[in-house]
UniProtKB/TrEMBL annotation:
It is found in: Cytoplasm. Binds 2 magnesium ions per tetramer. GO terms for molecular function: ATP binding; catalytic activity, acting on a protein; magnesium ion binding; phenylalanine-tRNA ligase activity; transferase activity; tRNA binding. Belongs to the class-II aminoacyl-tRNA synthetase family. Phe-tRNA synthetase alpha subunit type 1 subfamily. This is Phenylalanine--tRNA ligase alpha subunit. It comes from Pseudogracilibacillus auburnensis. InterPro entries: aa-tRNA-synth_II, aa-tRNA-synth_II/BPL/LPL, Phe-tRNA-synth_IIc_asu, Phe-tRNA_ligase_II_N, Phe_tRNA_ligase_alpha1_bac, Phenylalanyl-tRNA_Synthase, tRNA-bd_arm.
Amino acid sequence: MQEQLQRLEKEAVEKVSQTENVKDLQEVQVAYLGRKGSITEVLRGMGKLSKEERPVIGELANKVRAAIQEAIDEKKELLEQAELEKQLEKETIDVTLPGRPVNFGGTHILTSIIEEIEDLFIGLGYEVREGPEVETDYFNFEALNLPQGHPARDMQDSFYLTNELLMRTHTSPVQARTMRSLNGNEPVRMICPGKVYRRDSDDATHSHQFTQIEGLYVDKNVRMSDLKGTLDLFAKKMFGKDREIRLRPSFFPFTEPSVEMDISCKVCSGKGCSVCKQTGWIEILGAGMVHPKVLEMAGYDPNVYTGFAFGMGPDRIAMLKYGIDDIRRFYTNDIRFLKQFHEA
């Protein structure tokens, strides 16, 4: 049995050395060291040995097993290393080739303008509110002092979905909803940015869908001077500290008195040029003191509370700030146009 074990050891080691892949090596391992392998078959005959021979043969069997396993482990390591080198050679990457350029996205110019305005008013203590784009006729018109048949409704040609539902024509309904939710008991200081929709023919200065930001401040003892100071700060922050503002009388059903705000032309500094049509001023937004009826419909006592409201178009602000001549550029997704702003 001793000679048989030594012969199996020599035979197994030789076969291990001749294997060319891991699969063949596993087959050799099973053939000699497995439960039904050659070494196990030999050891089953140990019962026929004497008590003196059994320890000797057992010790030899363990040495033979260890020698074969050691040969298998060494060969396996060599085969795996060879396979790895072969794979690396096959998958070699030419690091001298130029890399593929990565195109980075950026914030849309209108989003940047809206966020800039939001940051300004948040710093003044305003909160940002949002509301539905599909609005009821009541909140879009009636709650803002525009009852059925009011001629001012014609100023905002609307997309009606039903007799009572429409695509909102301004973000003012958010103001009405916010005041209504507070039951006339708390001050309001808010802005509401968002998309609005009107039945305009698209051209260089008009779009059927555009963005708007409206602001509202309602509290006790709010004055017109507070509105002017707020708008003056806004103009200087957005267009430069040298900008001046002027307020002209106007009409909006939801404010009384109402004003249009102009800023001094940054191109000619108020001297007059083709941009400002030789006036030195550029119209930028509408504003006014909240109409008492609007306060009353929202649950506020107009004898106790006063407030001001303003509305502006980020599209128009972006056009003036960056000298953009066509509002449609914001919506046609021309990467060449859009990328110049987020690279700046």
